[in-house]
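Why show two proteins at once? Because comparison is the fastest way to build intuition. When a single record is shown, students tend to memorize it. When two are placed side by side, the eye starts asking what differs. So, the first record is below.
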Amino acid sequence: MLCKGLSMTKVRLGNRSVSLPGSRIARIVIGVLLVVGGVLGFLPVVGFWMLPLGILVLSIDLAPVRRLRRRVEVWWEKRRRRRNGETEKGRWTSRENGS
């Protein structure tokens, strides 16, 4: 059995990866603090950027948050493809390729 507490968990954001503590409790505490800071984003110092980051951190350990994050990812990708004129299979529509 692997000991997950000793290794660092990494989260990839685009081309960058961020290391998180190996402890599940520490990741949950960091995630909750980021979400609370994001909710208070209208105050100085904290910002609304903390809310999605907190959800991302919480999705590592909490299945309901992970399902919500995955649904949002799928919805966002479908929306992006519709706006770019791509079909579901990744091909361009006739409007884009000039036919």
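Second record. Ask yourself what differs from the first in the token line.
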Amino acid sequence: MVKVTEENEEVVVKGIIINHHFRTLRDFLENYSMTHNRIILNLKDLELIDDNGAKELMALAGNLIKKGKHFAITKMSDKVMSKFYQLGAKVWLSKNLLSKVG
């Protein structure tokens, strides 16, 4: 389960984000963005995020930025950061190598 709170002008995410848990974070960020132009996300206490959650988070961040919101991630555990690195590598490989094979 994921828990999302506001602490010291940051959105703090704790727990895990898999499958349907992302909905909790999405709803919180959408509501938060209605009254705040600056969204600072603290993922230090996020224990786990799956591929779908990471993809959805980056898509949501992109949408918020397109709406003129300032979006930043300030802290992240090594485990969660490695998930974003893996996801970035998969995207890069699929665009630059795998599509040119064959």
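One difference worth noting in the second protein: The chain is about 50% helix and 30% strand.
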